[in-house]
Amino acid sequence: MIFSLFQKGGPLMYLILAGSVLAITVFLERMIHYHRAQIDTDKFLVGLRNVLKKRNIVEAVTICAETPGPVASILKSGILKHGKSREIIKEAIEDASTHEIPRLEKNLIILATIAHITPLLGLLGTVLGMIKAFMVIQQKAGLVNPADLAQGIWEALITTAFGLSIAIPAYMAYNYLVSRVRTFISDMERAASEIVNILDEQEENYEI
């Protein structure tokens, strides 16, 4: 039944199908990536604070290097600048963030593009289907029955429905992934501020 409807939708159905496969692939890849990169930021910061209180910089850097995700990566850049001014530490963290954020956003543009293009492909299929229907009317000199128009109407309706059925979940998936990226960025900003304060405090205590 589904395969029969798919065939009646015309050649554009293959493009829409390819878009759906690509959207699923991107979504699953991003979900796996975010799952691996997600850490308990609060717990991680508590651990780093305890290590840095002992001025064990090497251990702190090792912990960051062995911890997955963008939060640990940018904090490592800041810790490597320990003993420097607050501005230099912040600059190092900001530089690291400029490399981590694009990694979080990787391939999201593909998902957004699919969400926008598939309805247009469905609309194009609708137009082509209606053109076929009117061509049949012209060829039959107006003496047509519903069966003569069935192919064009099927193509018009199916491509639109299929395009929308792919675009709607793709757009929802895109918004969900964007929200995950914003959560990561929020955690990065909070952790960066915290580590700068920790390093600043440790430096002041050391000077005293």
Q: Beta-strand level of the residues, as a percent range?
A: under 5%
Number of strands: 0
Q: In terms of structural class, how would the helical and strand content be classed? A: mainly alpha
Order of helices and strands: HHHHHHHH
Largest sheet: none
- The level of helicity is over 70%
Please give the count of helices: 8
What does this structure look like?
The longest helix is centred in the last third of the chain and has 62 residues, at 146-207. The protein has helices at 2-8, 12-37, 41-53, 57-66, 70-79, 86-105, 108-139, 146-207. With 208 residues, the chain is an all-alpha fold. It is 87% helix and 0% strand. It has one domain.
Which descriptors would you attach to this protein?
8 helices; rod-shaped; 208 residues; mainly alpha
Which helices and strands, and how do they pair?
Blueprint: H1 2-8, H2 12-37, H3 41-53, H4 57-66, H5 70-79, H6 86-105, H7 108-139, H8 146-207
